[in-house]
Amino acid sequence: xxxxxxxRRIGVAAVAATxxxxxxxxxxxxxxxxxxxxLAIGTLVDVQSxxxxxxxxxxxxxxxxxxxxxxxxxxxxxxxVAGLATQYTLTPSSxxxxxxxxxxxxxxxxxxxxxxxxxxxxxxxAAGPASTALASVSEVRVSDPAHVSxxxxxxxxxxxxxxxDVAGMVxxxxxxxxxxxxxxxxxxxxxxxxxxxxxxxxxxxxxxxxHYEDKTDQGLNRVEIxxxxxxxxxxxxxxxxxxxxxxxxxxxxxAVSSAGMNVxxxxxxxxxxxxxxxxxxxxxALANKxxxxxxGYAIDREAIVNASLFGQGTATTQVFGPESPxxxxxxxxxxxxxxxxxxxxxxxSGVQSxxxxxxxxxxxxxxAEAVQGYLRDVGIEMEIVLxxxxxxxxxxxxxxxxGFLTPIKQVHPEQLYNERLAPNGPQNxxxxxxxxxxxxxxxxLAAPDEASRDVAYQKMLAEVADEALWIDLFTDQTxxxxxxxxxxxxxxxxxxxxxxxxxxxx
Length: 506
Fold this sequence. Notes:
With 506 residues, this protein is of the alpha+beta class. It has helices at 61-64, 113-125, 159-162, 231-240, 253-258, 289-298, 301-308, 339-349, 365-377, 392-396, 413-421, 435-445, 450-467, and strands at 7-8, 38-43, 72-74, 80-82, 87-90, 94-98, 137-144, 147-152, 191-193, 203-208, 222-227, 245-247, 262-274, 313-315, 355-360, 381-386, 404-408, 470-482. The chain is globular.
């Protein structure tokens, strides 16, 4: 196909690949019980909204995935596979999707191309976190009940990936008419939220969707997700049998494992310190390139991984690893740990008492404090402001802070550009304009073939590193634990708060 764009046709059998990796047998937990079809999960943050248009996705998919089918999904290796759509074709001007026939939502209404169109238009028009992923979608066309075409105003190579998350979750048209979608969702997934049995901020109860046909996905009768913000409380609830599964703090992993729980580490998020206020509106020091580069050289990433992550992670100076086509072989600034070079850059900058602020909450606070110590050692003050759990994503999109320490799951440079580099990107709260980066991004989209496009993206990422628009830190591994009542767990990259419950039994 011309312009190096690919056509992928995915049979329904491809979905079975998601069940291959990560299935773990029980270890004989003393607190386990005979399977009764119920599952209790503990997680560390409350759901922000059950409306996919307003939910930031990624970790929060634990709450939404039982309710909604996404148009596409990823397998255990992070590859895009069939979801609700059985096949897709991506070109520079469109993304064409084929839908199954006869599917319905949990309220019995048809799930067809028109419903997909209305859902996508809702997500795009809501201007929430997911809207950026659909920014290049100029129109959604329906040709017949089984075929929908997303017309593109510009090439969108990361769009299939975006449709595996909240941007691709399909909401029933009946739920789009009212104002209660955020608390009373209607989707086509294997389970439905039971609002009457749920308590906001405390626990959320799910029951089976009677219209869901694939019973292999629907192995539970009842699911309860409990909000347990304290790591010790989650670990204690696991050991006592109050919950069956949870993301656990790394400091609690050994104790939970010793109690007979299955504990497995899943590839989690890439962490970066994004220096958002490049114009120096509220943090004048960050307008100075020497200061930003000094921050990169001041941080001992290996020490943070060993101390804060108990060695469960990989220190890195760029988002994409050597296995990725977007990995930059030689960055203009590799930001190895070199505190003396950092001090020299601070001195050369001429900035007196450089400082900026970042937000943090419980799980991110130790990492922020470690970074704070390294920066203080070279003469840069990073003030940490504690925010409420569940509000960090909102604060990262505000202009309240000069920078923010953030875990990300972006797996394509186009996502990084749209979210963090484009002047209107939601994670570019100060609207920083970077003309050279914009030009390199445009060159990537206009590339005549895939190899040329990869090189253009590499050049864009190299420019980001040289300008120190963000400082890459490490990729973490997240411990998830469950008792031997739970079977069929599939661990997938990025599902840090808990796995998809499709195919899980208890």
